[in-house]
Amino acid sequence: MDETASFPIPGESVPLSPAGRGTNPTGVRLYNERVILSLIRRHRALGKVDIARLTGLSTQTTTVIMNRLHADGLLTAGERQRGRIGQPSVPFSLNPDGAFGLGLMIGRRSSDLVLMDFTAGIRARARLTYAYPLPQALMDFAAREIPRLTAVLTKEQHARVTGIGVAMPFELWNWEADLETPPGALAGWRTFDVTRELGQLFPDWPVRMCNDATSACAAELTFGRGAAFHDFAYLYIGTFIGGGVVLNGSLFPGRSGNAGALGSMPILRREADGTASLQQLIRTASIYRLERRLIARGLPGTDIWVSPDDWSKFAEPLEDWIDEAADGLAQAIAAMLAVIDFEAVVIDGAFPVDVRSRLVERTRRRLAAIDHQGLTDALVVEGSVGRDARAIGGAALPLLATFARDFDVLFKE
């Protein structure tokens, strides 16, 4: 097989591109390069023989492609591995300095801006907190901080910045009641085009946008432990909980792009007085519920966002919130498993690592107490990317657009 032939990857999904992969030598060469980069990202390091075996390409063709990627600065060669039959193998891994992406996460209470390298390392970051997001304030934040973040790069590295990715909730104007904003405070988002405005500020870079929960799911799948599972449901708990669905190793957007809107799942919420009501998961397992518990105790709710890595002082309100959230999550997971027998359910969020561990463990216990007749058990595990998942997913958008083989799935409408 030569470089002008496309190929399947055993055990992996290889979606066809609307651009017509395989119709010309240049298109297939670029596709083969992307597949090889995706394989190396998934396996961390691979030799040329391993790549040839996984792809079905000839060793000669694999060598030509990998040498080119190495010369382009996208791959780095490791130490020769001796002790095997035949020639010593040289493992190749992604070069962290091979490419960079900028990620802007626009949240309901805070915004994060990160400069990320080719292996998801955060080189620089900035954070902005607020009572609610306003378009111009976010553009001022980006205009001020992006030059500061990219100043850490050399001239050569700066030329390897692939673009800006924005991760944000859709239809922000619909959240005024839950965010308790003044009436009409978020109306400006109805007509504000984030990608156009950022593109005018930074015309040298393409700007891409994706739903924040989908971006977080993409980050877990691409850079986190999600890559170990063929199918999983993903739950990201921010101000409001969101989610994503991964099937056959790829994000599944659904016919409208709204698959994984797990926060909208109805569950039974139990109140302190013993009553219960049918509510969406978003009104049980979301951080704004903890914020309201703190305010009811006379504590500043803003402490959640100002101190995102240490919630030890929240004590009893935090314990009550974990209990409420775990109860809702367990009900939602049981409902998910009745539809798709996921291998795993991954839970992550904008909270400290110890809080994530407590929440996941409590959720496992609550799930075990639910009637499982007819359901296939799934692992309930912690995410591995953490509170930066949405920003990392945003920064990954231009990188995936340039180098990944299955990027289209993020942008299906």
TrEMBL record:
It comes from the Bacteria. The lineage of its organism: Bacteria, Pseudomonadati, Pseudomonadota, Alphaproteobacteria, Hyphomicrobiales. Residues 1-25 are annotated as: Disordered. SUPFAM superfamilies: Actin-like ATPase domain, Winged helix' DNA-binding domain. This is ROK family protein. It comes from Ancylobacter oerskovii. CDD domains: ASKHA_ATPase_ROK (cd23763). InterPro entries: ATPase_NBD (IPR043129), ROK (IPR000600), WH-like_DNA-bd_sf (IPR036388), WH_DNA-bd_sf (IPR036390).
